[in-house]
Design a protein that fits this description.
2 copies of one chain form a homodimer. Chain A is of the alpha/beta class and 273 residues long. Chain A is built from 9 helices and 14 strands. Chain A is globular.
Chain lengths: 273, 273
């Protein structure tokens, strides 16, 4: 295999359940190269992580220096690569010296995994999002408000004085996946298109009447059977019902705070609307 | 195969997605024998239904007479044995002369499938429950109130003057199954025990604050990770959150009507509490 001319100073990795993201950075933290692999941790056993990582970064490594690899995300969970523990909220975002050093066999790398954050009451946990928030706080250290990180498990995080004060997780993305792939709704919402206006209508309806939101789900199937409503409309409504419920819960809890969205463009644009 | 001495006058069948129930009845409608098979329709193609049915009723059939088999449930759906259509609510429960006759090859049976009921707006459908309600109305023809039929897809049905006036479906049972078997919660709720008091607490909490109910789901996982809460408690809470949401929606819509529960003992007792 040919080596690239670019040798990163260090490598940042976000290793989640469904995605593996790798950034090759220079000393100043500028990203030289970026990779996203959609397989994530899958069913990896602890001993398989190093090989998978090396297979994706091999041509960026040099035989002459040890490259630091800093990992955040579910790879630091008990069932992951190595348990990196949790900080306990309220707390600062994790610092380098709190990272767990991982025993590796390839002499070209030195791997550390950052801890997640846990909240004892009401019980909640995050792994990976705390590091995204750390990046956000470097740019805006005085931010006082909510940070919303949409995803498989959306997080709403209250940030104050550079700290994670409290947070709450929603299974919105996972429930959407389960319902659209494995439930009786799968026939009604399959396909690709998306109706933005129906999405917004469903968000509003679920936001205003969250008690009724769960009863709207089967109705999607019935709209398909009885009214032959198009899958593009029904898929947008399903997404809207679930996100509307999430926003309704957060609005009632933290209605006076500014909100910052962190995440992938496509998902954030749904939450903005 | 030996024949039993008992020859039923007719056979009633409720053929749903997950269960097949068969009742052997005498002319007066008394149940002589009852069978429940937990496989349901699964992935049967239309041509496979007759063979499956015969395999379960064969030793109750006589070569000398034609036994009537009356079927309700999802077997009458478009993807089922034969499309038996829908009545449109508000309407009476389906009568025998509205049943679709099915072409069969075994000369010992004559099979008819009862139609379901559809509701155009808000869109909803039922198949099977309308026949349970018909049975209930034979006993209490003057009932004016709600009938709740818990299940994979729970139905809340407003009954008046012997008619199905309107109804609403909740995917409570299916969502419970998906979350406890296929989601990140599966590790937290696996097992068998059940904590009734935690169930009731979760129902109350979801009933009083339905906006927040969807945010309680991931918390079950977090309670497991952070507080090592027992699966017996978490499973009861999951069930309670979902049923509490359902009851909250119905309470806000139909809070002045009497409620009758129809269904299996175990499930009904959860809804009663």
């Amino acid at each position: 295999m040919t080596k690239t001319v670019m040798n990163p100073n260090w490598i940042a990795v976000d290793w989640g359940t469904t995605n593996l993201r790798i950034w090759h950075c220079d000393q100043a933290g500028n990203v030289l190269d970026e990779t996203k692999i959609q397989t994530g941790m899958g069913n990896l056993t602890a001993s398989e992580y190093e090989g998978v990582l090396i297979s994706h970064i091999d041509n960026h490594l040099s035989d002459d220096v040890i490259t630091e690899v800093l990992v955040c995300g579910m790879a630091g969970a008990r069932q992951g690569w190595q348990d990196a523990g949790y900080l306990t909220a309220p707390c600062d975002t994790p610092a380098l010296n709190q990272a767990a050093t991982v025993h590796t066999t390839d002499p070209r790398i030195m791997v550390r995994i950052l801890p997640g954050i846990k909240q004892p009451e009401p019980a909640d946990v995050m792994r990976g999002e705390e590091t995204q928030i750390a990046g956000f706080l470097i740019q805006t250290p005085d931010y006082n408000g909510l940070v919303c990180l949409p995803g498989t498990h959306s997080k709403w995080v209250r940030v104050q004085n550079g700290q994670v004060v409290e947070f709450q997780t929603f299974m919105t993305g996972e429930v959407y996946d389960l319902l659209s792939r494995s439930s009786v709704l799968k026939h009604s919402v399959s396909g690709a298109g998306f109706s933005q206006s129906d999405f917004v209508d469903a968000v509003k309806s679920a936001f205003e009447n969250p008690a009724n939101a769960s009863s709207q789900l089967f109705r999607l199937r019935a709209q398909h059977l009885v009214n032959e409503t198009d899958a593009t409309v029904l898929r947008a409504r399903l997404s809207g019902i679930l996100i509307g419920q999430e926003v309704a819960a957060m609005e009632r809890q933290w209605n006076h705070l500014p909100i910052t969205l962190i995440g992938e463009e496509a998902l954030c644009s749904l939450y903005k609307s």
